[in-house]
Design brief:
Largest sheet: 5 strands, mixed
Number of helices: 7
Helix content: 40-55%
Radius of gyration: 18 Å
Shape: globular
Structural class: alpha+beta
Order of helices and strands: HHEEEEHHEHHH
Strand order of the largest sheet: 3-2-1-4-5
């Protein structure tokens, strides 16, 4: 007979480097949300469909890094930092663990695939969550080179969906606003 009291519980490691990488990517995506909302007309339309009190908390469960993005009084999108304490969250999107977050943010798995494999938890309005994922796909197309973006999105947009002029001007202006 096995005595379970003789065997201590094994606790997983903290995965420090993975947490730093995911936190950095969430910071970049948070700033990019703010930048692309002012630059790209497609993103502006997506953000216009969101409610006036919109605040997104995109993070990793159980205690991983977070990205807080919301609308201000004038309806502009702002990156609100990483700490959800004291903020009225209207949409909470959680990645179930740090490994799933690494798959998403190293672009081994698209957000659509992660959703279908049940790696995301959504607490809030589902159509708004779909808009957020659509904006994330647009950000990946604008910020990443084509070979990396093809891995991160379900379908890379054709010329008819995203003209090269729009893509390159939005990309350049997003980079400038991301850094400035």
């Amino acid at each position: 007979m096995i005595n379970y009291n003789e065997y201590p519980e094994i606790k997983p490691g903290k995965k420090f480097l993975k947490r730093i990488y995911v936190a950095t990517m969430l910071f970049v995506f948070g700033r990019a949300f703010q930048a692309v909302s002012r630059v790209d007309r497609g993103a502006k339309e997506e953000f216009a469909q969101m409610p006036a009190d919109f605040v997104l908390d995109f993070g990793v469960v159980p205690n991983g890094p977070h990205m807080i993005v919301g609308k201000d009084d004038k309806g502009r999108i702002k990156y609100l930092g990483w700490n959800p304490a004291g903020k009225k969250i209207t949409l909470a999107m959680r990645i179930k663990n740090i490994e799933a977050a690494m798959r998403m943010f190293t672009f081994l798995e698209s957000s659509c695939t992660a959703t279908s494999r049940d790696r995301l938890i959504v607490d809030g309005d589902l159509p708004t969550a779909c808009n957020v994922l659509h904006i994330m796909d647009l950000l990946e197309v604008l910020l990443l080179p084509k070979f990396a973006a093809k891995l991160g999105v379900k379908r890379y947009p054709k010329w008819s969906q995203l003209s090269p002029l729009r893509k390159w001007t939005s990309r350049l202006l997003t980079y400038v606003r991301l850094v400035a």
